[in-house]
Design a protein that fits this description.
The chain is of the alpha+beta class. About 50% of the residues lie in helices and about 20% in strands. It is built from 11 helices and 12 strands. The strands form 3 sheets. The protein has a 5-stranded antiparallel sheet with strand order 2-1-5-4-3, sandwiched between helices. A 5-stranded mixed sheet has the order 7-9-10-12-11, with helices on one face. It has a two-stranded antiparallel sheet with strand order 6-8. Helix 6 packs antiparallel against helix 7 and helix 8 packs parallel to helix 9. The radius of gyration is 44 Å and the shape is elongated.
Length: about 425
């Protein structure tokens, strides 16, 4: 123990032992500096990524606000439209505007989220959805009257996005006022026409008596003046009759009495005075009868005569020289009779052809050629033919005449 005690031990804390991992102080400091550079680079990248994400978030937020603003703007426009709007997506109501409340006395919230079928049974708006169910969701300005005090014009439009159909938009346009004005106009025309008819008929009767010599002999010049007056009176009577026919068509009172007739004889009867008129004008007039036998055709004799008169009269009036051709053909398999009225007159300009069957329409070249005319003849003819479940159409080239076709079934009652 004493020997151990006499040993010389170093005083103070023990010195650390270096294991030569690095050679000197400069080498020791080089390693952490290299590692810190990599960390700094990573940190810088993180900062830049963070900033990029913040920029993206700012852009997204800006786009969100713009989208919300556009949505609010669109909703404000829809809510303030004068027309009623209903949006259907997958047969469910997803949007409607306050105008629906005015039309059907219900809040828009009462129908939002409901299916088409549910609303068919609704007491307040069910009539509209039953109408849509009957007519289909492909409508363009079809009239609908939910009650006596409201008339709507209904259109159904496709909503498309991303190349596919996303739903339907039902547009309800209030035409109650327009219909009321139209009704007043119709009533006025009816009253005026009836008031004119009586004196015109009396004038016609007196002039016929004078021309026949019942009131004494007339000189040639007197007869000539009376004949011109008689023709003018006849035009006035025809105008009055056309106006009355139009009002009856509009009111649904243009009644038809269908009976079986020999259609060839009925056509010849209607053509007789027109043929004479064409010959007086120096036109060739040809009636081509069908080669096959035609069975009796069910028509209204008076209304059929109006169709023939209106079509052939137009052909004569708008043909200065040449020929007017009327022909018939029988389609046995379809049990239909075809008519054709062809002329080589002034024709119809291409930009006017869509309006040919409209009320009071006369093309500019027709007005220049024949100043007199009402523009009602083709409108009336079309309605008569369609009331017989037939069809009318035409082909024309300006300056090269027009050809009108129409077809009538043998018996409309069986269609």
């Amino acid at each position: 123990m004493a020997a151990l005690a006499n040993q010389n031990y170093p005083t103070g804390p023990p010195k650390p032992v270096r294991k030569n991992l690095v050679q000197d102080q400069d080498d020791y400091s080089a390693v952490p500096q290299k590692n810190c550079g990599g960390l700094n680079k990573k940190a810088q990248e993180l900062v830049e990524s963070k900033q990029a994400l913040l920029n993206i978030l700012e852009d997204v937020e800006l786009e969100r606000k713009l989208a919300e603003g556009e949505r609010d703007r669109t909703l404000a426009i829809i809510k303030n439209l004068a027309d009623g709007i209903i949006i259907l997506e997958k047969n469910v109501i997803t949007l409607c505007n306050p105008k629906i409340e005015i039309f059907f006395s219900l809040l828009p919230d009462n129908i939002l989220g409901k299916s088409f079928q549910e609303l068919v049974e609704d007491q307040r708006i069910g009539s509209l959805f039953r109408f849509l169910q009957e007519k289909g969701l492909d409508l363009d300005r079809v009239e609908f009257q939910p009650n006596d005090n409201l008339t709507l014009e209904v259109s159904a439009l496709n909503i498309k996005g991303l190349g596919k159909e996303m739903g339907k938009m039902i547009v309800l346009h209030d035409i109650t006022r327009e219909k009321a004005v139209e009704q007043m106009k119709t009533e006025f025309v009816t009253i005026a026409a009836h008031q004119l008819r009586t004196p015109l008929s009396a004038i016609k009767w007196i002039m016929n008596m004078m021309l026949e010599g019942d009131l004494g002999q007339l000189s040639d010049s007197q007869k000539e003046f009376l004949q011109k007056t008689h023709q003018s009176n006849e035009r006035m009577i025809r105008l009055v009759n056309d106006l009355l026919n139009v009002t009856r068509i509009e009111e649904g009172r243009f009644l038809y009495e269908l009976k079986p007739y020999d259609i060839i004889k009925l056509t010849e009867k209607a053509l007789a005075p027109l043929k004479e008129l064409a010959l007086q004008k120096g036109l060739d007039f040809v009636f081509e009868k069908p080669s096959s036998v035609i069975p009796p055709i069910y028509v209204d004799e008076e209304k059929f005569g109006i169709v023939i008169q209106n079509l052939v009269d137009n052909a004569i009036n708008y043909t200065k020289q040449g020929k007017v051709l009327v022909s018939m053909a029988w389609d046995k398999p379809k049990e239909e009779v075809y008519f054709m009225v062809k002329d080589n007159g002034i024709g119809i300009p291409p930009d006017q052809q869509k309006r040919v069957f409209s009320r009071f329409f006369r093309s500019p070249n027709a007005v220049k050629t024949e100043t007199e005319g009402t523009g009602l003849g083709l409108f009336i003819a079309k309605n008569i033919i369609e009331a017989h479940l037939g069809k009318i159409w035409f082909e024309s080239q300006e300056g090269h005449g027009a050809t009108f076709f129409f077809v009538l079934p043998r018996d409309p009652r069986q269609r």
